[in-house]
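Students often ask what a 'structure token' actually looks like in practice. Rather than answer in the abstract, let us consider WD repeat-containing protein 26, a protein of 609 residues. Its sequence is given first.
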Amino acid sequence: MQANGAGQGQDSELSCLNNSAQNGESSSAGGAHTNVNGLSTTNNGNSVSNNIGIPAASNNAVSSDANSVKKKKRLSQSEEDVIRLIGQHLHDLGLNQTMDLLMQESGCRLEHPSATKFSNHVVEGEWDKAESDLNELKALMHSPSAIVVSPTVLQLRMKFLLLQQKYLEYLEDAKILEALQVLRAELTPLKYNTERIHILSGYLMCSHAEDLRAKAEWEGKGTASRTKLLDKLQTYLPPSVMLPPRRLQTLLRQAVELQRERCLYHNTKLDSGLDSVSLLLDHACSRKQFPCYTQQILTEHCNEVWFCKFSNDGTKLATGSKDTTVIVWHVNTSHQLKLMKTLEGHAYGVSYLAWSPDDTYLIACGPDDCSELWLWNVQTGELRTKMSQSHEDSLTSVAWNPDGKRFVTGGQRGQFYQCDLDGNLLDSWEGVRVQCLWCLGDARTVLASDTHQRIRGYNFEDLTDRNIVQEDHPIMSFTVSKNGRLALLNVATQGVHLWDLHDRVLVRKYQGVTQGFYTIHSCFGGHNEDFIASGSEDHKVYIWHRRSELPIAELTGHTRTVNCVSWNPVVPGLLASASDDGTVRIWGPAPFLDVQDAEGLNECCSMDS
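Now compare that with the structural description of the same chain:
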């Protein structure tokens, strides 16, 4: 990295000794060369000891080496950076002799000598010496932020961190008088971060070391806390003086994460560490691992299937049909679905279903002319509540409050109710023609799409409402991401739109789907909800990566309109779709994967579907 600020003019001195090599001198000539953390010292200009048991080279060999150095081209800045990164990694692995040889041969220096001395003093807990080192480092400091901060202020911040560690270590050792001296005579006169000083003074009341470590959220005296302190202190120094800790691992991790983000079919949760991936190959997931293949066709419904929804724990799937039944399916450990219960008795078809937060209850709603709502106990199969406020009502949508004790329901005839589990009316909002509902995680705000082509937020506590989304065409349905930030809308004649609810802006319009005036329900899904799926009037299921407007998969198999899709929230590779053809299809990865497919290495991600 290029340094800036005060350290910029010293890059050649700080990071590499190639200038001396160009003048025909050995890079280690001109006195002793001390490597990082005082690990070793090198030659006096006449001979080189390689520190690994090989006899030192003769004077002739040194002369030959000097001649070869003359012929070496000057290392570029990026080449110097790579050598320093490798050297740091070797040091972290304990391969110090190998690091020494690398620095000697390249003519580079891992850290500025003042930084090396400072690091050693911090790790060894020699606080007075470390504080003295700050005066030498002051000229090399630069502001870590875009706002320019003077080296004096940066030095003050670093000194505060050092004294804070010193103070805590005295407290842990029960050296109360010494700790008080640091607090009163060293920390307080700095007149910096007085709020933190008040907190530190409160630690004097800790009765034992464990209490201190818990309240201070501190690892205790020793290498761990001092290394963590050193990582913080490094942020005030340019990388030409001291490399950020574990910099090579950080860069490699960033590269792997970027490849995963660009992988259109990446749908698994992987360890954030580097041990779970190969650095020798680019990351690439196979389409065969993606839920693009029919695993099951559920045919137990005898009419159009209007809705499907996986439970929150992913172990059950509920499907609602024009045949007036709700079927609850169990998802076994092999991700096969088996009929668990059939809930009967609905006077109309079932067009909407909502699981309670703990999956104990399931609410079923009907089409526009349905004035009733059914609340089922899924485990017992018993009807807990059958709610109907008026025969004039149209209760077509429902959403659970996060507390699991209340729900809201409504329809296009102007009803908008909040009720308890027994169907008792708690609150109502007059004149709102509801198309679809959703309760946000704050347990206060209810989102409702209405006949004015908008989504509004309603607060039942203070009876306020506000406009959040405004479309130019009817919103047939919508769903919200788990974090409550994004909303996915199926808009009549337009398709699927993604909105940011916080910024109230349209983020993306997804292409391909056929959306008229039928109610089609789309969903977020996959690992980290990176994907979006929707049914379509052209009998297909469309899947997009959330950041891409073009579909990455078009799933065929249904013979009529696909009304609803649901992605299993626990099993990223399991997707369900419900269709007017009377079937529910379960989609998963390809049934047979070879070893390369299973490791996601056999092909690059592509847009092909």
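One point worth highlighting: The chain has two domains: 77-248, 287-588. Ask yourself how you might have guessed this from the sequence alone, and why that guess would often be unreliable.
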